[in-house]
């Protein structure tokens, strides 16, 4: 009897034999696993993953083109569990290659878990013995002598092996189904990309005048380029605002990748605004086909010429990937095949964590543990890139030396000092308004959207602007364009904003007022003052304050208290020592809160709960609801399309330009007052504004709603 894996639905006479599929998948999985030295594991997993298809029931299903469910994943998992030893770890991968990595479970489970799969009765698949030999596994997953948490290391290894398997399985199936006509494009080599960068920066490298800003940027750039020759490991790039860290980090990453024959460079960035900006810079230097931008605001599916990019976004098969903290870390802790396919392509990569201080505090322990695994066991190098370097040494117990890439770091920070700080202490809101009325070009950043709206209302007039996430993105970009023009024309420009202007927004004010927040936020805010260095530092003032009797900021209490204590003790904000002290104290106070969901406890005693962690590990908690603002003509048309044609991913992403996120407390008031309504029963937590007077061009969506107001029909 001949056994088949797939049948071409367009031509049912075209079939792929099961042995061909197993060997094809095994070959690809072996190739992928070779990036971290475990070719034998990849090959074995590939050969065993579909042996359940050797059952008569599955072959009958294929022949009859039936939708009947036949479990073909449990068989290979059971073979691995019965064989025991190292093979037992593969059972997670094979059992979950369609449904996702399972939890270990218990002897009482009846479905889903690994324990339940162990006892499950499946159709006889013993015919596999006539065609398939169980391959040998000769290497160890990792060196147990050099890890302090072997269980976490093993769980990471299983994820990486799973990634190799599911990507190989998908690609081999795709290759057959499309009859070898696959439109993938892996981009150009690292060597070619380095040549393109060298050509781009060649003129800059002639500048050695260290008394100029460009001369200092060149010094940092040259040092990063030379440091690419260093051995793989963990690095810091601590560069002051304006020091050119984007190009400097790219220079290090490409040279490092070429030196060590690494496969790609991955930029991990907290804000989509910075991603779009940096990805644009990289595309200009390296070419469109070499840079994959992967986050919630980009979609490659609408144009025929972008099909290779869409395919690459599934498994990150491009030389340069620019993505978010959310996409990167949630994928590394996911259990579903769709998110895990890319993981093996993180191995043997240079990973640049831009704005490294934005690593999520609630998940700092598991995130840093994963970064350490990537460096120690998966041939990757990690660069922690920021002007406000977090104190993370103690989170990397197995890494003894983190190398700083910025030459003469303390000296660079002194050279790039552009402001002086004044601590106003506690002020009343009316005093703050009085100060701002006397300014010419000033930015005031407060901690909450409601406070930004209140202060703006007291100041509003010619040349006064409000910016916050109560405005939908397209509206904010229009306001930012107006602000930039007034600043350039030297006209009066007072901006009241939330922290959204602290990164990825290129503005330059004479004075900045910053409500007390974390030290890193304050220093980021200071980067909007005298940004171009055209004024002396003495004339460029950053005023710190807190407001008497106003609301606290959810989730920021500890950051604010630590900052207040440091200022009271006389620490200098411009000092790198204060930044380090701030993070050390913050992490000490957070304690167990640095692993809020107890992620690390789910990998103990060789019992690993992948499914549970996949659900629990969410960097952005789902406590906000989306309100669509259909004021512009395009927004009205998109809304009509959503109501008529229903939910599509590309449609929702396009609609994102007109959306505002609100927390539940504010949402309940708006909903109770009849100002918003559900767009569709098919789209959860997605509402439209129906009372347009609640949204103004000056302030966006007003959150000032009296309790008890309601509209009855």
Concise description?
The chain is 41% helix and 14% strand.
Describe the structure.
Helix content is 41%, strand content 14%. It is an alpha/beta fold and 713 residues long. The protein has a 7-stranded parallel sheet with strand order 5-6-4-7-8-3-9, sandwiched between helices. Strand 14, helix 20 and strand 15 form a beta-alpha-beta unit. Helix 1 packs antiparallel against helix 2 and helix 9 packs parallel to helix 10. The longest helix has 28 residues. The protein is globular, with a radius of gyration of 28 Å. The N and C termini lie far apart (70 Å). The C terminus is likely disordered.
SS element count, helices: 26
CATH topology annotation of the largest domain: Rossmann fold
Rg, rounded, reads 28 Å
Q: Level of helix content?
A: 40-55%
Largest sheet: 7 strands, parallel
* CATH architectural category of the largest domain: 3-Layer(aba) Sandwich
In total, how many beta strands?
23
CATH class of the largest domain: Alpha Beta
Walk across the major sheet and give the strand order. 5-6-4-7-8-3-9
Q: Ranges with pLDDT <50 over ≥5 residues?
A: 298-306, 708-713
Mean pLDDT: 91
Into how many domains do the coordinates divide?
Answer: 4
Structural class given helices, strands, pairing? alpha/beta
Termini separation comes to 70 Å
Percentage of β-strand residues: 5-15%
CATH superfamily of the largest domain: P-loop containing nucleotide triphosphate hydrolases
